[in-house]
Specification:
- By secondary structure, the chain is an alpha/beta fold.
- It folds into 2 domains: about 140 residues, Rossmann fold, CATH 3.40.50.720; about 140 residues, Dihydrodipicolinate Reductase, domain 2.
- It has 12 helices and 11 strands.
- The protein has a 6-stranded parallel beta sheet with strand order 3-2-1-4-5-6, sandwiched between helices. A 5-stranded mixed beta sheet has the order 8-9-7-10-11.
- Helix 3 links the parallel strand 2 and strand 3.
- Helix 1 packs across helix 12.
- The protein is globular, with a radius of gyration of 20 Å.
- Bound molecules: 1,4-dihydronicotinamide adenine dinucleotide and oxaloacetate ion.
- 1,4-dihydronicotinamide adenine dinucleotide binds next to helix 1, strand 2, helix 5 and helix 10.
- Specifically catalyzes the NAD or NADP-dependent dehydrogenation of L-aspartate to iminoaspartate.
- It catalyses: L-aspartate + NADP(+) + H2O = oxaloacetate + NH4(+) + NADPH + H(+); L-aspartate + NAD(+) + H2O = oxaloacetate + NH4(+) + NADH + H(+).
- This is L-aspartate dehydrogenase.
- Its EC number is 1.4.1.21.
Length: about 300
């Protein structure tokens, strides 16, 4: 049988057009210029977002704007949706994408820490694509976890102190984060599990939930081994979230965000470190994330044929 040649461009809809969304739009220029991909991007308030457009990308509203396509209209015409708007937006719009039978690339992987939402997003008929985001090495970590070879999985994320300020913090904590100097050294602001971590720092520790996803352990699932007895992904993830330990550190000397992973067990000892260049659009976000998301988009589109 001859391979299918797709004549019409793939219609990709970004949910969120901030630092990651705009970087992804730039990275997809080869496909866009070749007429193989059409890109739309949804924002809540297109009117105020207008000055941050990217040529060739049509803006869509999830809010009340007039004079541009609405989210339901754009969703009805999309082949692939790419969430890069935040954990709340993933929860608000992700389920309708999956329920419509459209594949969804998830950047705010922290959304999967909510067990009900995880179950909904994994239920189909649309397929969920979980991006690696700012970290990786998941081939080795998943291989070890699939074989039951990991007892302990840890991640330590280090960021500039001001990027960790959150509205719920006491004034003294906010002040300390603002006043931390490089010579003060690192200050641990959180230690615990990914679920609690993402509740408190939804824009900083998606990587921790991504690590739990990668190490959930699914022996033989991809090749059909295990049959009906194989636990579902959502159950495996719930257990994996209990195993991963997270530390979030503020360090005024950390010019680049740093993620250090240590996984140990019968499979051995895996130590990984990531220090990404900052996003060209937002220095608080690792530039690596948009690179990973772009790769996931290309993989999802290639699977469509
Ligand atoms: N998996 C990973 O390694 C990483 C994941 N992330 C996730 O990606 C998200 C986006 O990151 P950035 O682009 O740096 O943030 P950003 O704040 O620059 O951009 C987010 C954009 O989404 C828009 N938005 C929010 N809710 C929306 C809604 N309901 N409808 C339409 N638009 C909406 C905002 O207006 C904003 O323009 C983060 O909040 C985080 O959850 C970020 C970094 C790494
Ligand atoms: O961009 C990064 O370094 C990682 C990040 O914020 C997240 O995982 O939420």
């Amino acid at each position: 049988m001859s391979p299918t040649v797709r004549s019409s461009p793939a219609r990709v809809l970004l949910l969120g057009f901030g630092a990651i969304g705009r970087h992804v739009a730039t990275l997809l220029a080869p496909e866009r210029d070749a007429g193989r991909l059409q890109l739309r991007a949804a924002e809540r308030n297109v009117a105020t977002h207008g000055h941050r457009t990217v040529p060739g990308v049509e803006l869509v509203t999830t809010g009340q704007d007039t004079g541009c396509p609405t989210w339901p209209e754009a969703l009805a015409e999309a082949d692939l949706v790419v969430e890069c708007a935040g954990v709340d937006a993933a929860g608000e719009h992700g389920p309708e994408v999956i329920a419509a039978g459209i594949d969804l690339v998830l950047t705010s992987v922290g959304a999967l820490a909510d067990p009900n939402l995880a179950r909904t997003l994994l239920a189909g008929p649309g397929r969920l694509w979980v991006t690696n985001g700012a970290i990786g090495g998941f081939d080795a970590l998943s291989a070890a976890a699939d074989a039951g070879g990991l007892d302990s999985v840890r991640i330590r994320t280090t960021k500039l102190p001001t990027s960790l300020v959150r509205p719920w913090m006491a004034p003294a904590e906010v002040e300390r984060l603002h006043e931390l100097r490089p010579e003060d050294g690192p200050w641990s602001v959180f230690a615990g599990g990914p679920t609690e971590a993402i509740e408190q720092f939804p824009a900083n520790v998606n990587v921790a939930v991504g690590l739990a996803w990668a190490t959930r352990g699914r022996p033989g699932a991809d090749v059909g081994v295990g049959g009906a007895d194989l636990p579902e992904d959502a159950d495996l993830l719930r257990r994996s979230l209990e195993r991963v330990q997270v530390e979030l550190v503020a360090d005024a000397a950390a010019v680049r965000s740093r993620h250090e992973i240590l996984a140990t067990g019968p499979a051995g000892r895996i130590e990984l470190g990531f220090e990404s260049a900052p996003s060209p659009e937002n220095p608080k976000t690792s530039g690596m994330t948009a690179l990973s998301v772009t790769r996931t988009i290309r993989e999802a589109l290639a699977r469509r044929g």
